[in-house]
Design a protein that fits this description.
With 497 residues, the chain is an alpha/beta fold. Helices cover 53% and strands 13% of the residues. The protein is built from 18 helices and 13 strands.
Length: 497
């Protein structure tokens, strides 16, 4: 054997030994860090569980906590929250209930009074509120870019604040912050459940980016760029993977519609723990709105119900209404006066700024005198506006359910909703073979549908309104309570009393 070959044989083990000497400290450091992390997690878990045990010994009963940082808002999600707590309080008299909220400017009593005024809901017993100081961490305005990721990371920190303030026995995320679920399950040692109104990310959102369609969450500068669109698709796919992992931690998953069910099953992959529980709609509260022919009306009112969030697409409503008025000026429609009434709640300053922008749009289009804004109105005023309306209007693309749609139909309005999501799959569907409303998906189709509705004979409009009212009985408070309690029963049975 040559000298060169012998040297090579000697160098190989020397190089391997040198490499091993370099890697050994790194391996040891990694093992040490993992061990420290595990011990830290176990220590935190032990500390939190001791806090819960002390509270249980003091109270003598278990506690169910709902994570709902915006519980003082006036939307459909808040109606679900209060109806759910009311149902559980009526069924389980020996359990305490807590709501984590970020509404710092009000007291607990004022929050409950708001629920009574807006939704006509009164809880049978007092509940405890845990006020969170860092709700700003889940505000979309804090994250102009990578909003989904930013809000999700923010929700983990907000969830940590909630967990350290109060450790419940059963944790329910009722607002869609899925990344808090593993926090309460693995650190808090709680049973966890979730009521999903809308998936944080969906295959439809991925399709919008892949097809480079501009939307409120896909601005023009992204849709016009091949590179940015491709980058956003990768970002969405990775986020969807994390979202699915977080959601799969839930012991119980309730979703509010068939549309939401399809997406949650594809993302969270827990079919045995997932069920549809339609949200409660105050169907009975609107049944006393008169149902009679409206042929002698001098002015037809078009009413929209929904929070002033960007996805509700109030701009589309205003532009479609403007197009209807233009067609009537050109002699293509009836002679009755028309007005558009936008009813909804504002969660924060961004929503209030959006209302100012919408008012400005009305002035710009020259229809400011034909559009009315009704903000945070009482239940009595809502019913009064419903009674005066002819058409109920809804324009949100892929609305997860549509409580406002159901309420309009219960009040006997001719419903015109977006041709997607819950309204298309669950609500504005034939009832005993009869039509219950209309669907549209863009400015022109909305304008045409409004003209078509107003051109119908009053008797035909009345029949559609009757069908609509009869069809929404399946979305009543009573139906929700029965389905919600049935879904919750396995989790509630795990609570030691």
């Amino acid at each position: 054997m040559s000298v060169l070959g012998t040297s090579a044989l000697i160098l190989v083990p020397q190089h391997s030994w040198l490499l091993w000497k370099l890697l050994l400290p790194l391996v040891f450091l990694c093992v040490l860090l993992i061990a420290v992390l595990v011990l830290l997690v176990l220590g935190v878990r032990l500390w939190l569980q001791s806090s819960r045990n002390a509270r249980r010994a003091r109270d003598g009963r278990p506690t169910v906590a709902f994570f709902h940082p915006y519980c003082n808002a006036g939307g459909g999600g808040e109606r679900v929250l209060w109806c759910a707590i009311r149902a559980l309080q009526n069924r389980y008299v020996d359990i305490n209930f807590v709501v984590y909220t970020g509404d710092l400017g009000v007291t607990g009593q004022q929050i409950l009074e708001g629920a009574r005024r807006r939704f006509n809901i009164v809880l049978p017993r007092p509940i405890q509120f845990v006020f969170l100081r860092h709700r700003l961490l889940v505000e979309p305005g804090l994250f102009p870019h990578f909003t989904l990721l930013g809000q999700s990371v923010g929700s983990i920190f907000l969830g940590w604040e909630a967990l350290t303030e109060f450790v419940p026995d059963l944790y329910i995320d009722s607002m869609g912050y899925a990344f808090t679920l593993p926090l309460f399950r693995y650190l808090g040692g709680c049973s966890v459940g979730s009521y999903v109104h809308y998936p944080t990310i969906s295959t439809d959102m991925l399709s919008v980016v892949r097809e480079r369609n501009p939307r409120f969450n896909n601005p023009d500068y992204v849709s016009n760029s091949l590179f940015l669109s491709a980058f956003k698709v990768v970002y969405y796919c990775l986020f969807a993977l994390l979202y699915g992992m977080a959601g799969s931690c839930s012991d119980l998953i309730m979703v509010n519609s068939s549309w939401t069910l399809d997406h949650i099953l594809s993302l969270w992959r827990a079919p045995n723990r997932t069920s549809v529980v339609y949200p409660p709609c105050d169907v009975s509260g609107f049944l006393d709105v008169p149902l009679e022919e409206d042929g002698d009306r001098k002015c037809h009112s078009i009413v929209s119900i929904g929070q002033f969030r960007p996805e509700k697409d109030h701009r589309l409503q205003i532009k479609a209404f403007k197009r209807v008025l233009d067609r009537r000026r050109e002699g293509l429609g009836g002679r009755e006066a028309l007005k558009l009434v936008l009813i909804g709640g504002c969660r924060d300053q961004q929503d209030e700024d959006r209302v100012l922008m919408l008012r400005g749009l009305c002035q710009e289009l020259g229809i400011g005198d034909r559009v009315e804004f009704k903000l945070n109105i009482s239940f009595e005023e809502l019913k009064r506006e419903m009674g005066e309306a002819t058409i109920g209007l809804h324009t949100m693309w892929n609305e997860h359910f549509g409580i406002g749609v159901v309420e309009c139909m219960a009040a006997g309005k001719v419903m015109l909703a977006h041709k997607s999501g819950g309204p298309k799959l669950d609500i504005v569907v034939p009832y005993e073979g009869g039509q219950t409303g209309f669907l549209a998906d863009d400015e022109e189709s909305y304008a045409e549908a409004i003209d078509r509705i107003l051109a119908l004979p009053p008797a035909m409009r009345l029949q559609i309104r009757r069908n609509a009212r009869q069809s929404v009985a399946r979305f009543s408070d009573q139906e929700f309570e029965a389905c919600f309690l049935a879904a919750m029963e396995p989790l509630m049975g795990t609570l030691e009393r």
